[in-house]
Structures are given as C-alpha cells and as structure tokens.
Amino acid sequence: MSLQLLVTALALSLSSLSSLACNKPAEEAPVVAAAELAAPANVKRIDIAVNDSGFSPSTIELKKGEPVVLRFTRTTKSECLKAIAIPDLKIEKDLPLNTQVEVAVTPQKEGKMVLQCWMAMVKATINVVGS
Length: 131
Known about the structure:
- By secondary structure, the protein is of the alpha+beta class.
- It is built from 2 helices and 9 strands.
- Helix content is about 20%, strand content about 40%.
- The protein starts with a helix and ends with a strand.
C-alpha cells in the first residue's frame, strides 16, 4: 500500500470518527443543561463570592426540594477558580472573571455536598436540610 493511500485512508477514518462524536444521542447530554435554564424571578438567590480566599460563604444552607439559584462572582485571576463543580449534582460551570454566573439547583437529598473548583483543590460545603 502506498504512503499516499495509507494517509488518505487514515484521514477518512478520522473524519468518520469525528462525525460520530458530534452526533451524541440526546440521553447522553450533560445534566448541566438543566442548571443553565433561567430560573423564575421569585426563586431564592444566594450570592457566592469567589476570590483569593476561596468561596464566601464557605457553607451554604439549602432546603431539600427547594429551587434556588447560586450566583457566583469570581474576582480572582486564579486559574484554579476559573470554573466550579458540584459533583453530586453533575454540575460544572465556567466562571468568567468579574461576571455574575447563575446556577439553578433543586437538591433532592438531605446531607452535605461539595462545591469545589474544577481542580478539586478549593472547596465549600452545601448542607441540604429537610424541607
């Protein structure tokens, strides 16, 4: 097999694979999409500062089944804090510098959850109590 034919076959294979990756079934869509929907104006909003000290407040109290919007504002240039994650809720969200970012959540289980930077180095606690 000539080198040109081999390169062409490889390019066609890669092209086919990349088109398959772009056609992911809807059921595999990330849960984050639900968190990005606009919340009604009457939903409780909690402001969370993201700065050189981490998250403030470092403990957030929520009620089971109560929808809330967490409003993050990052004022630090730290690369570690450029995005957050709430693993128990399958939420990941970028935090652009000096821009308020809203994340709608409705916790369904009581207990503690971790709110963390995308590197899992800076953490806060979300404490969910009964309604």
